[in-house]
Amino acid sequence: MDITNYTIDLALKPTTFDLWHVCLAGTVAILAGALILTLLSLVMCLARRKETTDAEPQVKIVEKIVQSEPIVQIVEKIVEVPVEKIVEKIVEVEKIVQIPAPAPVVLKEANADAALQLLYLLQNDARFIDFIKEDMSGHSDEDVGMVARVIHEGCNKVLDEHFSFSPIAKENEGDSITLLEGYDAAKVRVTGNIVGNPPFTGKIIHKGWQVTDVRLPSTVQGYNSNVIAPAEVEL
What pLDDT, in 10s, does the model give residues 73-99? Predict the structure, then answer.
């Protein structure tokens, strides 16, 4: 068996590039790139580790500052309250919350008999309705004045005989008066520039009147109070 000796000359340079050489060159380039990336990664990791090492003293200082603050311990204490006291508190709250219902408004029916009786007295003694219902356009002021004087005297007689009056304000008209808080608004009517709450200080314009006694005559059963003045027929 013949053995052929092959000698390789390393100094030889390829003069042509086939597919095999192209693949070999690509593989070398990929390996070189991977090596470069690996080296870059190692360098970045070393740099980050160095930054972390430099920042460690600051972290330790912060930890020391936090640890130097006093620690406050909160202790929750459960206090047992008797059931009787809780019930009493609930009852007290219910008493405060419950508001009494307003009293119902009761409307009184007007009794027309007394008003009709007064009209009868004014007509009978002072011819009041005759004067009010008379057409005064055809009469002079002097005639109206003379009749009004007679009507005035008759009406004053009826009022004095069946009613008693008294002024509400004791002061004279034009005097100054101060109304305190809680004054009776039914007896005093405030007019003008009303600002704020009492006390109010103003001037008396009218003293007002109130009835202190009523003395109307009694009527018999079957009396027709709607008849103020019966018709008169002369025979």
Answer: 555 555 565 656 555 555 554 444 444
- Is the pTM above the cut of 0.85? no
CA distance 17 to 19: 7
Question: Do the Cβ atoms of 138 and 154 come closer than 8 Å?
Answer: no
Name the pairing type of β-strands 200-203 and 209-214: unpaired
Residue 93, helix vs strand vs coil: helix
Res 11: pLDDT = 60
Question: Between the CA of residue 118 and those of 22, 30, 33, 133, what are the distances in Å?
Answer: 140, 131, 129, 17
Check: CB of residue 229 under 8 Å from CB of residue 124.
yes
CB 97 within 8 A of CB 199: no
Which residues lie below 8 Å from residue 217, measured CB to CB, with a gap of 6+?
Answer: 117, 162
Confidence of residue 27 (pLDDT cuts 50, 70, 90): confident
Strand-strand pairing, 209-214 and 163-167: antiparallel
